[in-house]
Amino acid sequence: MRPLAQCQALLAAVLASAAAVVSTSAPAQDRAGERAAMIETIKSHARSAPSAVEGQGIDPAVLATMAKVPRHLFVPEELRGAAYRDRPLPIGYGQTISQPFIVALMTDLINVGPGDVVLEVGTGSGYQAAVLSPRAAKVYSIEIIPELGERAAARLAELRYGNVEVKVGDGYYGWPAHAPFDGIVVTAAASHIPPPLVEQLAKGGRMVVPVGAPFATQFLMLVEKRQDGSITTRQLLPVGFVPLRGGGTR
Ligand code: SAH
Q: What is the spatial distance between Cα 222 and Cα 206, in angstroms, rounded to a whole number?
């Protein structure tokens, strides 16, 4: 029996590595050098923002994930050359893909692990969702502009981020059917912390959300729900996000 079991284990290992080769084929491996340089830039940016970054800087596991996600496939073709610069880029419909440092920071701050369920409000290109994907059990992401949501969902499926589910809708109200969430990332600036999202945060969960008026200074806020249900908020650093639209922000 034993040799057979070993054989099966070997076969399973071979199949798994074949699958890994397929899923990280050409596009993911392309431009690895530029991604490595982007990671160095994120690290130095993190050193200059110590009040926002907890502990020893951005979690190396977050950076390792970002070293694999092909950011150039999340930006319009004509901007692919600039994909690994530490800056936001336009993605159409007046929206932007966030700057890599901010993606790293937000991913680090919600501090989720393999069993966790995450909500993202503002799918945009799908890049932040792709970075969250290997770090959580499931990622739910909501986008209010149908064309962006549909495009991001197709791209994420094509790149095999199979645990990400995108829906078109107003993320201000969250996604009650899948709540509570261990982490929530809001990637558009709200005039206030949306109460439905606080409601849908799990005990022990964390939410990052930019808060402030459009075209005025916004601050990235960290919201934590303790085990007793009480809420703490912390203002971290000034940021510039596109505005959160929809019913709840009027
Ligand atoms: N996380 C994205 C960046 C998105 S920019 C990325 O990685 O590319 C912010 C996005 O939030 C935009 O696409 C915008 O259309 C979307 N958005 C704005 N208000 C929203 C709302 N109420 N619900 C869901 N998405 C919203």
A: 7
